[in-house]
Amino acid sequence: MMFGVIVCPQCNHVKSVNLSSMTTKCIHCGKTLQIKKLKIFYETESQEKLRKAIGLLNAEFQKKNETFKKVLNDENKAKRKAFE
Predict the structure, then answer these.
(1) What is the 3-state secondary structure of 15-77?
(2) The dihedral of CA 32, 34, 35, 41: what is its sign?
(3) What pTM does this model have?
(4) Which residue has the higher pLDDT, 83 or 54?
(5) Residue 30 to residue 39: CA distance in whole angstroms
(6) Which residues contact 37 (CB under 8 A, 6 or more apart)?
(7) Alpha carbon distance 49, 51 (integer Å)
(8) What percentage of the chain exceeds 90 in pLDDT?
(9) What is the spatial distance between Cα 8 and Cα 36, in angstroms, rounded to a whole number?
(10) Beta bridge partner(s), residue 14
(11) 3 state SS of 14
């Protein structure tokens, strides 16, 4: 199953969608969105990559992208050290 990351054009809420669906509803503002008319910012089959993409896009909208990337990088370093 392929998932995509979209942004609601009405309220700028970032969310994931199943790309095989025709529509989705924004949980933030309630608007029904036609997926084929939206820009797909990222596509993946991986739930983990989907969550990270949503986090990065949210951080970009909030102008905290560099801070968020640093946190992710620090988490990955900690995980790598746990396996050493």
Answers:
(1) EEEECCCCEEECCCCCCEEEHHHCCCCEEECCHHHHHHHHHHHHHHHCCCHHHHHHHHHHHHH
(2) negative
(3) 0.70
(4) 54
(5) 18
(6) none
(7) 5
(8) 58
(9) 13
(10) 7
(11) strand
pLDDT of residue 83: 46
Q: Which residues are within 8 A (CB) of 18 and not within 5 positions of it... i.e. 6 or more apart?
A: 1, 2, 3, 24
**For residue 76, what are its two tokens?**
């990955």
> How many CB atoms sit inside 10 A of residue 67's CB?
11
With b for 16 or more beta-carbon neighbours within 10 A and e for fewer, the 19-34 pattern comes to: eeeeebebeeeeeebe
Nearest to 16 by CA among 36, 29, 41: 41
User: pLDDT per residue over 26-59, tens digit each?
Assistant: 999 999 999 999 999 999 999 999 999 998 888 7
